[in-house]
Design goal:
Chain lengths: 105, 494
């Protein structure tokens, strides 16, 4: 029997992996993928919580509605984000983090 | 015309201007600027005429997720004012901004702020986390574009990438926090969360986890520690009008959501009340210190204003951690709103002066400010007052804001935070006055010819300067506007 805890553990692992990737990787595209993974982890937690929050035999759907918003917003974010990363590649011919270290105090 | 339709009007105007750019390319930049500035000014006028009968104007279908209380109305007005100022500043900066954009086009710089403004106004009224999330992302995603818009400048592009990565990171953290808050309280509305937290049986650790993630995600938007590292870089790289918008608009939007979240988390006998207060105090103190201490070494005024914006976020967080202050007669949310109202004219004025120097071929470093008082007495005086107010000199607006925060901290006997805030304020005096000394130094910067100001520029500078002085000398009217919600709440409690 798969319980809420199993989902939460998977979600926690996904989130940590994403965060570790954001901190450790040097390629901006991969960092961006890791960010999307963190968002998916949060979505998984939301859906799981929603599914197991049962009142009168029905799950509470508010959180699942939020998940749809999150997915849509993430798509918009990816569209804008990739455009900026492409613009960066055009000017610097690189998408490594070393390409963005000029701004320093 | 009700308050509710103003956001829709702004968003539609923004979209329409984007379409005009795409399908009718021969429309000049001046027309688009006029439409956008005129539209915002019209929205501001309509807002003030509609605000008096606001609460009944909300259609019933949006009552569950929106509320037009005094605080929401104050912030909506605030966002309209800052958007108008930013659009005007963009128009002023157009000659040099055009050099850095693709084919010199600037339409998005005039249409996206309208959409951002609509998003921020929705945030001000939001009553549940779904609305907060969608409105917040509308603002953030538009800001990604705005920050990176001057893409021929590699600094702006770099700032855009940094803002993008850290913004997306904070979104992930925010949604994760929302998930855990929902999982433990079973609700996404502020009211439901507050009600669930007041019940004694709730498990403490998971709520605390969710609340910590939620506060961290929102902390990014307001430039609070430990997510403050993007601020100086992004502020320095982004075009000046966008930096202004980020440092005033985006921060205030973050704080209105933070105010509502913290209110929900701290309400009554909330099980996690003491922990959240402790967290806010620690983060606030840390933010003040991390904002003020590195600022001492800064040579670039734009970066300096970035660090100053971090330390102001710290004072605001400390204000949020306090209970309602009996001594100043203001609620903690009222103090935050008041502080932001004082923060608006002084920060905008700082950036306006920076933009004028930039337009006249100057740079953004402290040495470019040398002899400013000689080159233009009006600008020299205005910048001196703005910086003195940012430092918190008595008789200026900044002093009143800081005074309320310090009084609340004394009221609650949060001595550790008080010491940190005092250290931050002292460091502030040092670095702001270093710039003031440069302004009044007898020798001038490499460019030494007198600065000529247009009539509108001069008028705006004078109005902003007067706003700083009036708020510093006579804060009572604004204080009364902001202390209203407490009275209403007290009445309904009896």
């Amino acid at each position: 029997m798969i319980t809420l805890n199993h989902y939460l553990i998977v979600s926690g692992i996904l989130f940590s992996l994403g965060l570790a990737g954001v901190i450790a990787r040097r390629n901006i595209l991969i960092i961006y993928m890791c960010l999307e993974m963190m968002l998916s982890a949060a979505n998984l937690a939301l859906v799981a919580f929603s599914r197991f929050n049962v009142t009168q035999g029905l799950p509470d759907y508010t959180a699942q509605a939020l998940v749809f918003f999150t997915i849509t917003v993430a798509a918009a974010e990816v569209a804008v984000g990739l455009a900026i990363i492409v613009a960066l590649y055009r000017t610097k011919q690189s998408v490594e983090v070393e390409a963005v270290t000029k701004l320093q105090g | 015309m009700s308050v509710f339709t103003i956001e829709a009007f702004l968003a539609i105007l923004g979209l329409a201007l984007l379409l005009v750019e795409a399908f009718v390319p021969q429309v000049s930049r001046r027309t688009i600027a006029a439409a956008s500035i005129g539209g915002t000014a019209l929205a501001l006028v309509l807002f003030f005429t509609a605000a008096s009968h606001a609460p009944d104007s909300l259609p019933s279908f949006c009552r569950p997720w929106m509320q037009l209380d005094q605080l929401a109305l104050f912030y909506k007005g605030f966002f309209l004012v800052i958007t108008l100022l930013v659009l005007w500043l963009t128009h002023e900066c157009a000659p040099y901004l055009g050099k850095y954009t693709l084919e010199g086009r600037l339409t998005e710089m005039f249409s996206l702020p309208l959409i951002v403004c609509a998003g921020m106004m929705w945030m001000a009224a939001a009553q549940d986390l779904v609305t907060v999330f969608v409105a917040l992302e509308l603002v953030t995603v538009s800001f990604y574009v705005l920050v990176a818009f001057a893409r021929k400048s590699s600094l702006a592009l770099e700032a855009g990438v940094k803002y993008l990565i850290l913004g997306a990171l904070s979104t992930g953290v925010l949604v994760f926090g929302i998930a855990w808050i929902y999982g433990t309280t079973g609700s996404l509305s502020f009211q439901g969360i507050a009600a669930a937290l007041a019940k004694p049986g709730i498990a403490k650790a998971p709520v605390l986890l969710g609340a910590a993630f939620l506060l961290a995600g929102l902390g990014f938007k307001v430039a609070a520690a430990p997510f403050q590292s993007w601020v100086p870089d992004v502020y320095q790289g982004a075009p000046i009008p966008v930096t202004t918008f980020l440092s005033v608009g985006s921060k205030a939007a973050g704080f209105v959501v933070l105010t509502r979240t913290v209110d929900a988390l701290l309400v009554g006998h909330s099980v996690i009340g003491p922990e959240i207060k402790g967290l806010l105090l620690i983060l606030g103190s840390l933010t003040v210190l991390l904002g003020s201490l590195p600022a001492i070494y800064q040579q670039s005024v734009k970066r300096l204003l970035g660090y100053s914006s971090i330390s102001h976020a710290g004072y605001l967080l400390l204000a949020l951690a306090c209970d309602d202050s009996t001594r100043s007669g203001m609620t903690s949310s009222g103090i935050v709103a008041f502080y932001l109202a004082t923060y608006l004219p002084m920060t905008v004025l700082g950036f306006v002066v920076l933009a004028i120097l930039r337009l006249n071929g100057g740079g953004e470093d402290i040495r470019d400010f040398r002899g400013l008082a000689k080159r233009s007495p009006v600008l020299g005086l205005a910048m001196t007052i703005a910086l003195a107010s940012l430092a918190g000199l008595p008789l200026t607006a900044g002093f009143m804001g800081k005074l309320f925060v310090f009084v609340s901290l004394v009221d609650q006997a949060y001595w550790g935070a008080l010491v940190c805030a005092a250290i931050g304020a002292a460091a502030g005096f040092y670095y702001y006055f270093r710039t003031i000394l440069a302004i009044h130094s007898p020798e001038t910067s490499p460019a030494s010819e007198p600065l000529k100001l247009g009539t509108i520029t001069k008028a705006c500078t004078v109005v902003l300067t007067l706003a700083i002085l009036v708020l510093g000398l006579y804060p009572k009217p604004l204080q009364q506007v902001l202390s209203k919600p407490a009275e209403v709440a007290a009445k309904s409690a009896h």
